[in-house]
Write a structure and sequence with these properties.
globular
């Protein structure tokens, strides 16, 4: 069982795939889509949960998603059909870094998938290329809540330089020519719900499919992830979601 299959199973009860509650996601989208007729783009859209939520209840909005995973895009198409979005949602199977469009977008999202574009600043650079005038970027990125411990780094397979603290993360964003117009720092409760959902969904699948060749791998992956979270990065790794506009040039 590869990482994409594990991720799909682990996120089946938390499809946003980030430590954000449903209420938080709704509030962020209300701030990001004030008119209700915007065109949006999700770079690294996965199973399309952000796009489906953004377009549902906003019949004048249109969205496009880009991802390399055929299985994730198949799930996104199923979700789009279930939400009766019709041709308002277009999905592209390609590298988000290589994606081009003939028009600009009012909102470009990259929440929890900046790694697909090489990190936070490259993701913002890609967003800038796709934005229409006065458009916004919505990014979600990790940061160190506290100094990372060896246990946290081992659990995340990360280096201390992989993330900054929150203030430095925002400083990097503003230095790159962006102004935050809204933001949300994931709470401890949101993190716990995300991690319990991740490990619990995977464990439940393994227990329900004892004869499946992937059952043992799923069970072991869930146990290792849970241990790494509880004994490693819980309370150490944070997550911030920023709604940004381009800063006018002086």
């Amino acid at each position: 069982m590869d990482r994409r299959q594990l991720s799909t199973l682990a996120h089946q009860n938390h499809p946003v795939a980030a430590p954000l509650s449903d209420t938080t996601v709704q509030r962020i989208l209300e701030r990001a889509l004030p008119r209700g007729d915007e065109r949006l783009l999700d770079l690294g859209c996965g199973e399309g949960e952000w796009l489906v939520r953004a377009l549902s209840g906003r019949p004048e909005t249109q969205g496009e998603g880009v991802d390399l995973s055929p299985s994730a895009l198949a799930k996104a198409r199923e979700a789009s059909a279930a939400a009766s979005l019709g041709d308002r949602l277009v999905l592209h199977e390609r590298d988000a870094a290589q994606f081009t469009a003939r028009h600009g977008f009012d909102l470009v999202l990259c929440v929890g998938s900046t790694h697909a574009l090489g990190g936070l600043l490259p993701a913002l650079g890609a967003a800038r290329e796709h934005l229409a005038a006065d458009g916004c970027a919505l990014v979600g990125e990790g940061f160190w809540e506290t100094e990372p411990t060896p246990a946290a780094l081992a659990a995340l397979d990360a280096s201390p330089e992989e993330f900054d603290d929150l203030a430095t993360t925002v400083d990097r964003v503003t230095a790159a020519g962006w102004t935050p117009v809204y933001g949300h720092v994931s709470t401890a409760g949101e993190w716990d719900d995300y991690e319990w959902s991740w490990t619990g969904s995977l464990s439940r699948w393994a227990l329900d499919h004892p004869g499946d060749p992937g059952s043992t791998a799923a069970h072991e992956a869930a146990a290792a992830h849970r241990d790494g979270w509880l004994r490693g990065y819980r309370g150490v790794l944070g997550f911030v979601t920023l709604l940004l506009r381009r800063t006018p040039e002086a």
